[in-house]
Amino acid sequence: MKQFLKGIDALKNLKDNDTVAVVEACSHVPTCDDIGRVKIPRWISEKMKLQLNYRFFAGKEFPELQELSNCKLMIHCGGCVLNRTAFMRRMKLAKRLNIPVVNYGMLISQLHGVLDRVLEPIFKRQG
After folding, report:
1. Strands (DSSP E) along the chain, which ranges?
2. Which residues face 74 on adjacent strands?
3. Which comes out higher in pLDDT, residue 40 or 122?
4. Nearest to 71 by CA among 25, 9, 10, 26
5. Are 14 and 49 spatial neighbours (Cβ–Cβ below 8 Å)?
6. CATH of 2-126, one of 3.40.50.261, 3.40.50.11410, 1.20.970.10, 3.40.50.300
7. What does the alpha-carbon distance between residue 8 and residue 40 come to, in Å, rounded to a whole number?
8. Can you give the residue ranges of every domain in the chain?
9. Which of 24, 54, 113, 118 is least crowded, fewest Cβ atoms below 10 Å from its Cβ?
10. pLDDT digits over 52-75, tens only?
């Protein structure tokens, strides 16, 4: 979760024309209103008034390092088709490449103004 919160901070620092990687673990056929390819970019554009360059990656194979080299942020799905080891390998690679990463859920919560409320019970429990 700490790594994803750093991704939220990086989101706030994006500028027009920055490149963002949208990474999905599954290889589903995108629909006309796909969450990663359509909705999230639209919400970022509407709510943050940014025009970003998106690179989309799907499937269990992770993008090549050079494909991620100029990305200012990685937006990753929940990874439900990956096991924990495979998902954590992706998070470690993003960290090693110094690319902030955020998952769909935290990003969407931030864009819709509810992230603090969503995280409040977690931080209260940690005391």
Report:
1. 19-24, 53-58, 71-76, 101-103
2. 21, 101
3. 40
4. 10
5. no
6. 3.40.50.11410
7. 14
8. 2-126
9. 113
10. 999 999 887 777 888 888 999 999
Amino acid at 98: N
Query: Model's pTM, two decimal places?
Result: 0.91
Position 22 scores a pLDDT of 95
User: What is the distance between the alpha carbons of residues 64 and 11, in angstroms, rounded to a whole number?
Assistant: 23
pLDDT digits (tens, 9 = 90+) for 84-104: 999 999 999 999 999 999 999
DSSP states of 71-118: EEEEEE---TTS-HHHHHHHHHHHHHTT--EEEHHHHHHHHTT-HHHH
Cβ–Cβ under 8 Å, residues 35 and 104 = yes
Structure tokens at 5: 């919160």
